[in-house]
Design brief:
The protein is an all-beta fold and 279 residues long. The protein has no helices and 27 strands. The strands form three sheets. The protein has an eight-stranded parallel beta barrel. Strands 7-10-12 form a three-stranded parallel beta sheet, with no helix packed on it. It has a two-stranded parallel sheet with strand order 24-26.
């Protein structure tokens, strides 16, 4: 591989169609699309200061790098990218990326980031911004720390573990998502989802888990959660008190206790839902 070290690279398409490059301690500045259409590139200890750094690229490794605010819309239509130990200040960073691995990455302005990506692996990542991971598929996530609303809208086939999600309207319109051992806080959790499974989770939500087709909850706690399960088909094993439940469509709900149970016969058939209260 050709080595490029400690260079200030400026101008549009500075390394356009680069092949087999090992880039160390460089700064990409004042020029769009510096690594567009590149192949087999390693970038280490470098800085991106301008827009669209890695579009239509393939087989890329990024390590110990920084993408500043103006490196926005940075990585689109790219395939097979591994990023580690990197800070991203820019929004809209990943779009339509296939084969993406993020490890030890901080996304401090993750607005509209990670859209329509597939085959995604995330490990030890923090993100702050709305609309994270819209319309992604085939995701494996471990230790994600998210502050941002409307996350995971339209996601299909995802497994999330050991994460902390502070996110209003999370998991809307999803299909086949499973969350293990995580904390989720946010209003209107999971509306219009299909096959949403929550295992060993703690959840705080206003009108959470409504309009869901096949909601499964195992060994979960619901704290400060009101008007839950409206128009959902649900199998829920709740190990705590539930403040209120309203009009589930069918299934079984087990809880320590329920503060208010609302079953309106003109809206649902109460006989289709079994309620088991331990205390």
């Amino acid at each position: 591989m050709k080595k490029i070290q400690q260079q200030l690279l400026t101008g549009e398409r500075a390394l356009f169609m680069g092949r087999d490059l090992d880039i160390y301690d460089c700064v990409f500045d004042d020029g769009e699309s510096p690594l567009k259409e590149s192949r087999n590139i390693r970038v280490t200890g470098s800085i991106f200061r301008w827009k669209y750094p890695l579009w239509y690229a393939k087989d890329i490794e990024v390590k110990d790098c920084t993408l500043f605010n103006m490196a926005r819309a940075g990585i689109w239509y790219t395939e097979n990218l591994k990023m580690t130990d990197t800070t991203i200040e820019a929004p809209k960073t990943f779009r339509r990326v296939k084969g993406l691995e993020l490890t030890n990455v901080d996304m401090v302005n993750a607005e509209e980031t990670l859209w329509s990506c597939s085959d995604v692996k995330i490990n030890n990542v923090s993100a702050h911004g709305d609309y994270l991971a819209m319309n992604c598929s085939d995701m494996e996530i471990d230790n994600l720390r998210l502050v941002g609303n409307y996350s995971f809208d339209g996601v299909k086939n995802a497994v999330i573990r050991n994460s902390r999600l502070l996110s209003k309207d999370a998991f809307w319109n999803t299909d086949n998502v499973t969350v293990y051992d995580s904390f989720i806080s946010g209003e209107y959790l999971g509306w219009n989802a299909k096959n949403l499974t929550l295992i060993n989770c703690t959840i705080e939500s206003l009108q959470g888990m409504c309009y869901i087709d096949n909601l499964v909850m195992k060994n979960c706690k619901l704290i400060n959660t009101t008007l839950a399960f409206e128009y959902s088909t649900v199998e829920a094993d709740i190990t705590s008190h539930i403040d209120s439940v309203i009009n589930p469509t069918s299934g079984t709900i087990t809880a320590e206790s329920i503060g208010e149970l609302i079953l309106e016969k003109d809206k649902i058939d109460p006989e289709k839902t079994i309620i088991k209260v331990k205390n």
